[in-house]
TrEMBL record:
<dbReference type="GO" id="GO:0030170">
    <property type="term" value="F:pyridoxal phosphate binding"/>
</dbReference>
<comment type="similarity">
    <text>Belongs to the glycogen phosphorylase family.</text>
</comment>
<keyword id="KW-0808">Transferase</keyword>
<dbReference type="GO" id="GO:0005737">
    <property type="term" value="C:cytoplasm"/>
</dbReference>
<dbReference type="GO" id="GO:0005980">
    <property type="term" value="P:glycogen catabolic process"/>
</dbReference>
<keyword id="KW-0663">Pyridoxal phosphate</keyword>
<keyword id="KW-0119">Carbohydrate metabolism</keyword>
<dbReference type="GO" id="GO:0008184">
    <property type="term" value="F:glycogen phosphorylase activity"/>
</dbReference>
<dbReference type="Pfam" id="PF00343">
    <property type="entry name" value="Phosphorylase"/>
</dbReference>
<dbReference type="InterPro" id="IPR000811">
    <property type="entry name" value="Glyco_trans_35"/>
</dbReference>
<keyword id="KW-0328">Glycosyltransferase</keyword>
<protein>
    <recommendedName>
        <fullName>Alpha-1,4 glucan phosphorylase</fullName>
        <ecNumber>2.4.1.1</ecNumber>
    </recommendedName>
</protein>
<comment type="function">
    <text>Allosteric enzyme that catalyzes the rate-limiting step in glycogen catabolism, the phosphorolytic cleavage of glycogen to produce glucose-1-phosphate, and plays a central role in maintaining cellular and organismal glucose homeostasis.</text>
</comment>
Length: 173
C-alpha cells in the first residue's frame, strides 16, 4: 500500500507468522511489524508519508515522468497494452490508464525503483540461508502479538476497559 493510505496489513501479519520477511511500504500494519521485529528483519521501500504529502502540497507529481525516464518501467507498463500478455486487454488498459492517464494516485511508479532495489537486497539475502533463517525466526517469534487472542485481550483492556473472565470464574460465583 502507499504510505499514508492506511491499507490493512493482516495478510502481512499472517505471512510473518509463517516466517516470511516483509517487503513493503511503511504504512499501516507494516509499521507495527517493523516496530515488532526491528529494521533489520523487514525490507521497507518506497516514498514516506512525508514525501507523498510533499507531492500533494506542491502538486508536482507527474507519473509520466517516471515512465519516460525508466526503460524498465516503460517496458513493464507497455506490456499491459501491447498484446505481450494475452487475455488482459481490458484489465491491462485500465491499469495502464490509472497509472498514466489518471496520474497514479497511489504513487506506484514513484516507488518502482525503490521496490526493485529492495527486492534485489532480499534476493541476495536469500542466498545466505543462516542469516535468512535468523530473520525468519525473528518474524515468527514476534508474530504472536498480532494473534486474534492477543488482540482481543488488548482491545478489552485498552479500548473497551473490560476485565477478562474465564469459564471457571462463572463456576466459582
Amino acid at each position: 500500500s502507499t504510505a499514508g493510505k492506511e491499507a490493512s496489513g493482516t495478510s502481512n501479519m499472517k505471512l510473518m507468522s509463517a516466517g516470511a520477511l516483509t517487503l513493503a511500504t511503511l504504512d499501516g500494519a507494516n509499521i507495527e511489524i517493523k516496530d515488532a521485529v526491528g529494521d533489520d528483519n523487514v525490507e521497507i521501500f518506497g516514498l514516506t508519508e512525508e514525501e507523498i504529502a510533499g507531492y500533494y502540497q506542491r502538486g508536482d507529481y507527474h507519473a509520466r515522468d517516471f515512465y519516460d525516464q525508466d526503460p524498465r518501467l516503460h517496458a513493464a507498463l507497455d506490456m499491459l497494452v501491447n498484446g505481450q500478455i494475452p487475455g488482459i486487454e481490458t484489465e491491462g488498459r485500465d491499469i495502464f490508464n490509472s497509472l498514466l492517464t489518471y496520474n497514479d494516485e497511489y504513487f506506484v511508479l514513484a516507488d518502482f525503483e525503490s521496490y526493485l532495489a529492495a527486492n534485489e537486497r532480499l534476493d541476495k539475502l536469500y542466498q545466505q540461508p543462516r542469516i535468512w533463517a535468523k530473520k525468519a525466526l525473528a518474524n515468527i517469534a514476534e508474530s504472536g502479538r498480532f494473534s486474534a487472542d492477543f488482540t482481543v485481550q488488548r482491545y478489552g483492556r485498552e479500548i473497551w476497559h473490560v476485565v477478562a473472565k474465564t469459564p471457571e470464574d462463572d463456576h466459582e460465583a
